[in-house]
Amino acid sequence: MLEQLDTLLAQLDALRARALVELASIDTSAALDEWDTRYLGRNKGELKNLSAIMPRLSKEERPVVGQRINAVKADLEHQLTAKRDLLEQRELLQALEQERLDVTLPGRTLPVGHSNPLSQVIWEVTRIFADMGFHTVQGPEVETDYYNFQALNLPADHPARDMQDTFWVVPGEILLRTQTSPMQIRTMEQMRPPVRVVVPGKVYRYEAIDASHEAMFHQIEGLLVDEHCTMSDLKGCLERFAREMFGEKRRVRFRGSYFPFTEPSAEVDIDCPFCEGAGCRTCKYTGWIEVLGSGMVDPRVLRQVGYDPAKYRGFAFGMGVERIAMLKYGVNEIRLFSGNDLRFLRQF
Amino acid sequence: MRVPLSWLKEYVDITMSPEKLAHTLTMAGLEVETIDYIGATWGEKIITAQITHLEKVPKSDHLNYTHVNTGHGELGVVCGAPNIQLGDKVPLALVGAQVGDITIGESKKMGYVSQGMLCSPRELGMGNDHGGIYILDADTPLGERLSDILGEVVLDFSIKAHRGDLSSVLGIAREVAALTKQELRIPRSVLHERGTPTSEMARVTVEAPDLCPRYAARIVSNIQLGPSPSWMGRRLLAAGMRPINNVVDITNYVMLEFGQPLHGFDYNLIRQKHIVVRRAHDGEMLTTLDDMKRKLTPDMLLITDPEGPTAIAGVMGGAISEVNTATTTVLLEAANFNAVSVRRTSTALGLRTDASSRFEKGLDPELALAGANRAAQLLVELAGGMVNPGVIDVYPKPVKPRTIAFATGEVEWLTGMKVTQGEVIDALRALHFEVATDADELGAKMLVTIPTYRSDIEEGADLVEEVLRMIGYDTLPATIPTGPLPEPQRESWFDREQEIRTRLVGAGLNEIITYTMTSRARMSNLLAQLNASSARFLLQSGNAPAHGLPAQDVQIPSDKTIAPFEVRTIPAVVLANPLTSDLEAMRLTLMSGLLETVQENSKRVKAGLRFFEIGRRYLPPEDIHKQPDERRSVGIALSGPTEISWVPELGRAVDFYDLKGVVETLLNGLHIARHRFTPAQHPTFHPGRCALIETVRFSTDGQEIFSPIGVIGEVHPLVQQRYDLPHRAYLCELDIELLYAAVPMRLTYRPISRHQELTRDLAIVVAEQVAAQAISDVIVNNGGELLRSVTLFDIYTGEPIPIGKKNLTYSLVYQAADRTLTDAEANALQEKIIRALYDAHGATLR
Known about the structure:
The complex is a heterodimer.
Chain A lengths: L1 H24 L3 H12 L5 H6 L9 H38 L18 H14 L4 E2 L5 E3 H4 L19 E3 L3 E3 L5 H9 L4 E10 L11 E11 L4 H16 L5 E5 L5 E10 L16 E10 L1 H6 L8 E8 H9 L6 H4 L2 H4 L3
Helix pairs in contact in A: 1-4, 2-4, 5-8, 5-10
Chain B lengths: L1 E3 H4 L9 H10 L3 E8 L7 E11 L7 E6 L4 E6 L9 E6 L3 E2 L2 E2 L3 E3 L2 E3 L1 E3 L27 H5 L1 E7 L10 H12 L17 H4 L1 E4 L7 E8 L8 H10 L6 H13 L4 E4 L7 E6 L5 E3 L5 E3 L5 E5 L2 E5 L3 E2 L12 E7 L2 H11 L4 H6 L7 H17 L2 E2 L4 E3 L7 E6 L1 H7 L5 H10 L3 E4 L7 E6 L9 H12 L21 H14 L3 E2 L5 E2 L1 H5 L7 H4 L13 E2 L34 E2 L4 H12 L6 E11 L9 E11 L8 H4 L4 H14 L5 E7 L3 E14 L5 E12 L1 H6 L6 E7 H6 L16 E10 L4 H12 L3 E10 L8 E10 L8 H19 L2 E2 L1
């Protein structure tokens, strides 16, 4: 029987060698399953067929053959698992390859909205002053002559009214406000000091519309009244504003001016952010750009609202939002703001 | 106000450059807008020369051939100007000179060689006169650079409304002297009076002293009318006035110099030699110097003689007494008129003159005599005149200088800048304010006497500004306010508008800001049918801000109601002086501006027409003398595809539910859970695609009521056509204050139930016209507290659903807060809902 044993063992080795050669060339799961059935199949697998001889073997031969069969089986099973993993990976890869996308195609974007550049400037300016304790309030655009002019030390027939050509609803009585300053009066009437407000809003001037003039535009008014403030505080506040708005290096220049409702009055310039003060077209080669008007609240105005000018002091300022936006974004035509052209709006 | 620097230098020494001077004055509040350099471009090749030979060029109708002496030799020049004469001194542009845009070259004209060009004032950039060559003064040296003779620097000042005293060369010189610490030289008039005393030649009666505080008159005889000397003409030109004749020029010159407007009457044309200053009679007429016949009203002040008006006080003289070639005797008027009166008169007549603009800023009455004397002196010097003795001066209440008590501390109190009393006194005295200090109270109060020409200085704050101007605004320190902060702000509409803005930008909309001024014609484009009943939708009755009306309230107009409709009958806040008829009224709605924006942009872009505007509607008050109701509103417009995309869904044109989704997103974001959309009729919208947006408010008895806060819909095809829109458009408008009335005051956490939820699907079949809202109302009302959510997830029509019916499928979630719900409980509720749906809408289960 020993010869037979040797033959048997040789057959097992041959079987393993043949199976492995076949396995190496298999590249589909179906062929692998077939291979599995052929060699390792529980009923008619070749290994099973060979092991059918076991009962005919001697007691001594059995463990030798049995061990060999188990070793071959374990080896084949191990190789099968490895192959199966390999094939599965490859097939997954192939399946995924089928799903390849052109990742350079544009995505399904959500529509991107844009808030108006003027709203953005108003928001930014009011936040800067909010940090300094100023509330943001709004007032009526269709105003009375009293609030827009008289209470602001601009009685009827005051020549300074020429500075502000007016749209009238009822001549001499009801008008479109020419400035946000009437809210100085309304605010002081409604509250007692300390007062700190900024007032953004639309204003109207009877003016022919061109590249630098609009009949409707936006202003931001500022007002602070308490028992402590001085014109130096006004300068400090505006300097801080200029630096936050136009850059850390900005310098602020006060020069004499005239507004009927402030005394002393000052025009406020910043050094040109485009040329850093060296002189360019934007600043008309002066190095300075006028950004707002300001001053200490005129005692006549304080008296008008029942504040004692010997006790209370205040400062006020007013700026054009379009002008600030033009400087900030380098816009050269004021009419673009009321044009509402998408190609313009989408840039902000 | 244009001031030639050479003129300014007559009254004050100026050593700094014109640019430095302009900067110094600008910083002190006297703004120099521009500096004009006359002659800056003339260079070395435009020189003075004299005509030494003059002959007509044969066969030419206008050319002359001249020899000109340049001081270094003679040149031949051909010239076409008619005014040159032998011996004239003229500006000569040599070969190579740059005159305007052209370079002078040697040329040959009709056989004559021309080695240069004689120049007219226009060619020299000295005004618009091109009628002839500029003739120089006879004593002009030859061969000099013209710029050395005629060059001038002109400063153009912007004079602020409160500083009428600066509308003169002397006034500006005074400011320059103060700011540069120089002496001011005021011209003194020395008059040799001869002949008949003025008082015997004329009489002045002021019948309206309230409007004429002072009226001074002088008479100058033996006048020889003629041109002014060239220096005066040059100064007038540089200052922006046109030389006319010596009498008129002198009055203008003195007005520019002193700021006192003067008027010269031809004495012989004053009837009865009696000047009466009075208000106009109703219906009186006067032809003014500009040959316009003016209709006068009783609030206008006139200069008259017993037979009628001769001038409009402070505005313009009349033709009837105008100085003319026959004039030999001039009556000079130097008066002071009420600022308001002059302003009203000049406004009413639409006639703004150099005189009126000076009077309306308020003029110092003390100027009158100085002005009259100065003009008289110049009439003697330049027009051969003889000054009659004495002056008529009606000046019943001479102005007294104001005195103000002032303390050094006021400067620091208002400006935060430390100054010494010495600095304050120096500053004020430099401005010719008299300062008296009380020796006993060193450093305390000062008494400051204000010159009469500074009527703008009334109290301490005004003096603080003067001190600041003199010391320099640039010395102000910069500090941060240290005072207490105001009370916290309770509600901020600004913040609420910003919240809406942020949400709508997040929804992919672009914020527009349109003109609030529009016209009723433009707004009526929003109405599919133009008639009174649809027009009222633009503003609603009274101040009710609600939009639209419930569907059943609207009747289809019968033929009778379609009458011609006038848009001007639409009530609105209408402007008395609109810029154009397109901007005649304040908007009643944001919707027309939105559609106009869609229209404009649709010409330029193919996608992304997604806009919103936050702004006000202006609802007219019942009483026109009151302010209107300004309703804070937000409007939204969508039209066409959101973008051009390879993704079909993104490239599709928007529909009603896109806009509704935006509105719902806004409402949900604001936590307005209870809202609904009720079908409505509105003349702007498609009758089947319009809804009122309603939120819950509570009635006085605590009952929930839905009330409208806005309207939404698809734009009516007729309206769409009118705006020429390529795609259907969707519009909505919401009242922001009503919107926020529905926002919960505060949010309260509701514990998340740990108990299991039971989900039941509900598929029903109902008639197609039953609104989804009606079905979900029944479900919600019958589901009670245990019904947590109702979600519609499918709508189906078609086989096997019968025609005219639709199948709706909902997912209902039941859950209790305190226990696990049993199937039986959920099933019972489900049964109840199914029964109620059948009862209410005949709904059957699918």
